[in-house]
Amino acid sequence: MPVDAQQRIDAYLNRLRGRLRGLDAENAREIVEELRSHILDRATQGGEMTLAGVDAALASLGNPEQLAGEYMADDLLKRAEVSRLPWRILESLFRWGSLSVAGFFVLLSAVLGYFLGVVFILVAAIKPFHPQTAGFWVYPDSTGGTTYSVRMGFGGAPASGHELLGWWIVPIGLVGSCALLMLTTNFALWCARQYRRSRALPR
Amino acid sequence: MSDRDQQSGAVSWEVQLRKGCLELAILAALWDGRLYGLEILRRLETASDLIVSEGTVYPLLNRLRALGLIQGEWVESESGHPRKYYGLTAAGKERALQMAAIWTRFSTSMNRLLAPLAERK
User: Fold this and answer.
1) Any CB–CB contact under 8 A between A46 and chain B?
2) Cβ count within 10 A of residue A162
3) pLDDT tens digits, one per residue of B18-38
């Protein structure tokens, strides 16, 4: 086999392997070896292996990042669905987000949803320690408008304005954060299922 | 809608249709015995007019394997490198039969519905 043909195959498969991180190691290894075998078969179809034959074989497999995406997408969504843990879901969405625009927007909204959920929990937990300053504040801002803000109570109270909910922030914060976390999880998984349905074969 | 839009609508419908048949086509290709990836591709090309890209078939084989419908086995060959052969599992055979039955029922009724259109040609 020509040396540069071998190099080209290795380079392609290395790029693929790099993108398959996250699949279990054995599966990733099998995928790479199977494709190596395929490339060798395709490149020697006309008898002797040539550089042109290798290039044609690699071209018909498509670019390695996209090919890896085909292998990964399903696996990621499946894992996120089984665990339902926010960090697992975010991890999957992060990869999905790197593969497609739709995935990126779902990732953004999930990050926002989880972030707000965590903020609500924190403010409910901190209220007993900063009873005067933590809570849901409304105060005038520098442009003359009104700002609504969830404050943890560090750094004192805003100069003007007042806190809206008082001790109600504790139950409302807890219920609100549970609702947000569940809503975000369900929304992310729903999007993932729609995405899979749109591109995948019937199960 | 322009002619061109009409045409591309029909083309994308055809793509979806072919995609939807691919799983059944692969299971059917393996019905007579085990084959490796490239053989499956050639079988699909010669036995049906499913022209499938290689980048589609290999990930799909991996998924069918994960679903337990096919299983892979490495076999040494005289070409100098091993090849991964796939065969149907019991679950895969059952699934293939189910899907074939659905296909037959569906295509028969579709053909009945389409008969007047065929006559127009």
Assistant:
1) no
2) 10
3) 888 899 999 999 999 999 999
What does the DSSP assignment read for B90-117?
HHHHHHHHHHHHHHHHHHHHHHHHHHHH
CB contact under 8 A, B58 and A74: no
Q: Could you give the ipTM of this predicted complex? A: 0.86
Distance in angstroms (rounded) separating the CA atoms of residues B105 and A138: 65
Residue A23 phi, psi (nearest 5): -75, 160
This prediction's pTM: 0.68
The residues in B 40-79 lying below 8 A from A, measured between CB atoms, are: 53-56, 58-60, 62-63, 66-67, 72, 74, 79
**What is the chain B residue with the closest CA to A40?**
B81
Q: Which residue of A has its CA nearest to B55?
A: A61
Neighboring chain A residues of B82 at a CB cutoff of 8 Å: 33, 37
d(CA A177, CA A122): 9
Domains of chain A: which residue ranges? 1-62, 69-203
Integer Cα distance of B84 and A44 in angstroms: 17
CA distance A10 to A84: 37
B2 φ, ψ to 5°? -75, 165
Picking from A37, A42, A203, the nearest residue to B82 by CB comes out as A37
pLDDT tens for B53-111 read 888 899 999 989 988 999 999 999 888 889 999 999 999 999 999 999 999 999 999 99
Q: Considering only alpha carbons, which residue of chain B is nearest residue A35? A: B58
User: Is pLDDT of A111 > 90?
Assistant: yes
